[in-house]
Write a structure and sequence with these properties.
The protein has nine helices and six strands, in the order ααααααββββββααα. The chain is mainly α. A two-stranded antiparallel ribbon has the order 1-6. A two-stranded antiparallel sheet has the order 2-3. A two-stranded antiparallel ribbon has the order 4-5. A hairpin with a 2-residue loop joins strand 4 and strand 5. The chain is elongated. The N terminus and C terminus are likely disordered. It binds a DNA duplex through helix 3 and helix 6.
Length: about 250
DNA sequence: AATCACACCAACCGCGTACAA
DNA sequence: CTTGTACGCGGTTGGTGTGAT
């Protein structure tokens, strides 16, 4: 038994959207807001499936979308985020205001891949192409309940957040180089590993907001929830209620 | 001017997941 | 617990534009 179709395709338009269809969709969402994509087309008078409407809105019609070329800063941020998340385009898009996952995915496949290859970097592994293939290292599952350490580690060169660039570590026989000194990867203290803490903050987490609490109780462990390590663009952290928009910097991550 | 190759990007497709019944 | 439905995501496709020959 196959999956039931998301809609009755026989009576649906396909292909490029017309200006009239765009207007119908925009007008409807302006009036009624997003949501219930399945019933939206009929309510809006569109001969499209809900999926198609959602995609059109998300990728093209949303008023907060930034059109135009990617900046060099965006390029570098995408590279950096891709080294962290892999092909999790929605996660990456969440860190680039006004950009969609589809847009970033397309841009990655058409521009950044080539850019990295020209630098001699494998776009998938973010390691020099001349290196032997590393053992499989899938990106962390968004559902992972525990911290995951990316191994081998990715180094973000430079202390200045403005100059952060994703660079694969020089790795010769498991060594890594940082600040001019070479260290066996095995000897690297755990806190220097590039670590993604994907634990969901359920219960009490001590965030930036709680620095004062921590000062009052120095024995308490400083735990920073994911939202504070990575940052939310458009919504506040639901565990610590930080509402400021935080830009991604190396200091947020490392 | 015609044709071809390539790049770009909007849109589609199928799957995984969340959630309600 | 199972099942059905809707949504969101990532991979892929196909149309269009542009430059080279």
């Amino acid at each position: 038994m196959g999956r039931s179709p998301c809609c009755e395709k026989a009576h649906m338009n396909k292909g490029a959207w017309t200006k009239e269809e765009d207007k119908l969709l925009i007008d409807y969402i302006r009036t009624h807001g997003e949501g219930c994509w399945r019933s939206l087309p009929k309510a809006a008078g569109l001969q499209r499936c809900g999926k198609s409407c959602r995609l059109r809105w998300m990728n093209y019609l949303r008023p907060d979308l930034k059109r135009g070329n990617f900046t060099d800063e965006e390029d570098e941020l995408i590279i950096k985020l891709h080294s962290m998340f892999g092909n999790k385009w929605s996660l990456i898009a969440g860190r680039l205001p006004g950009r969609t996952d589809n847009e970033i995915k397309n841009y990655w496949n058409t521009h950044i891949k080539r850019k990295l290859l020209s630098r001699g970097i494998d776009p998938q592994t973010h390691r020099p192409i001349t290196e032997p293939a590393a053992p499989p290292n899938p990106p962390p599952s968004p559902h992972a309940g525990h911290s995951s350490v990316l191994s081998p580690p990715i180094k973000f060169a430079g202390e200045d957040p403005e100059t952060v660039k994703a660079e694969p570590l020089s790795q010769e026989e498991g060594n890594y180089t940082s600040n001019g000194t070479t260290t066996s990867y095995k000897e690297i203290p755990k806190e220097h590993h590039f670590e993604l803490n994907l634990e969901l903050s359920v219960g009490q987490a001590t965030c930036h907001r709680a620095e004062s609490d921590r000062a009052a109780n120095p024995e308490s462990e400083r735990v920073v929830c994911l939202c504070c390590r990575i940052g939310f663009q458009n919504e506040s952290c639901r565990s610590c209620q930080i509402s400021e928009v935080r830009s991604l910097t190396s200091s947020n991550i490392l």
